Amino acid sequence: VQLVESGGGLVQPGGSLRLSCAASGFTFSRTVMNWARQVPGKEREFVAGISDVGGSTNYADSVKGRFTISRDDAKNTAYLQMNNLKPEDTAVYYCNRGAVWGQGTQVTVSS
What we know:
It is built from no helices and 11 strands. The protein has strands at residues 2-6, 9-11, 17-24, 33-38, 45-50, 57-59, 67-72, 77-82, 91-97, 100-101, 105-109. A hairpin with a 6-residue loop joins strand 5 and strand 6. The protein starts with a strand and ends with a strand.
């Protein structure tokens, strides 16, 4: 089982980024996928989740209306579209499937 995140980088406040999470080693289409983020010295926090059947989504209050989680089961990939980014969104972003986590991708929002 492997999860590999990509798409992070440096962006100005108000900008956008799309993160990707490429999955392998399990039946992706039958798995709930989540995104979380972590700032040094703080606990990892839930950002967004998407169900398998039906693709229902849920979000942390801090990102509602700005972030969108999606999935492409044909590509075994989950996405996190992040718009109107704020400096407080700066963190390492991880995707996870249960107890399995990727290595993370750094997102830095700064002018």
